[in-house]
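Lab notebook: predicted structure, single chain.

Context: the supervisor wants predicted structures on file for every construct in the current expression panel, including those that have not yet been purified. This is the next one on the list. No modifications to the sequence; it matches the entry in the shared construct table.
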Amino acid sequence: MTDFTTIASGLRFPEGPVAMPDGSILLVEIEAGRITRVLPDGTTRTVAEPGGGPNGLAIGPDGKLYCCNNGGFHYHDHHGLLIPGGQPDDYSGGRIERIDLDTGAVEILYKSGDFGCTLRGPNDIVFDAHGGFWFTDHGKTRPRERDVTGIFYARADGSRLEEVIFPSENPNGIGLSPDGGTLYAAETYTCRLMAFRVTAPGKVDQTAGLGGAGTPLYRPAGYKFFDSLGIEESGNICVATIGESGISVISPAGDLVEFVATDDPFTTNICWGGADMRDAYITLSGTGRLVRTRWPRAGLRLAY
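Prediction complete. Output recorded below exactly as produced.
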């Protein structure tokens, strides 16, 4: 069993961890509608309070924080676990936000309707080397219906938003291969890891597979659902796995390298920091913890 050190606890469904140069971790507390900085000693500071459901985070080329806001969930406590689900009565709409880390000011960069696009529940985000970013829209679930959603590309200056991949089965985690040539996306309910060949900034091969743009790379057996993901320096894809919980490490060829088990059925995301990029930070959202462990391989340094 992997040894984990709890860095912070009492968080309200943490997600979207970003390791910062000063050793702190930025993350969201989705249920609380806030963005939090966790200092190395475990103390926390509120960075911003965008409300709704802040989810995936990434630092952009301008040094600001970009946030996928899913608009919120219903929550209930079940045997000590905080569990999200469904579209809340106060659903505030999906959007992409840009946040000033110095002041906490929140700016809506993209919202539903911009450039003819529909945003329901933006979930996870990754910047490419060209200064643009990919993000997934997980959609929202209501009684007897669920949104059909896609994967988007946008510019950080607010000048372009495009739904590049549609449909996608409730996409969640997203990441780029070390050379930027492959886009990976994890679908939650199908528990599939999809691969897309990037042909230009914000473009993918739309004829790659029988079903369109993407090809299925990996799908596990058992009671599992895929959440967010991170990429190792080697190119392995580390997918946070809900249910039979942990991190599924998958090679670019689609083989399971290993499964790193955790004790929280809502294991939702992973990032890396430290001088050697082997300090792995994992969000255990059901129990409200951020934990750290030494990873056997280095994580990939992000574009910004």
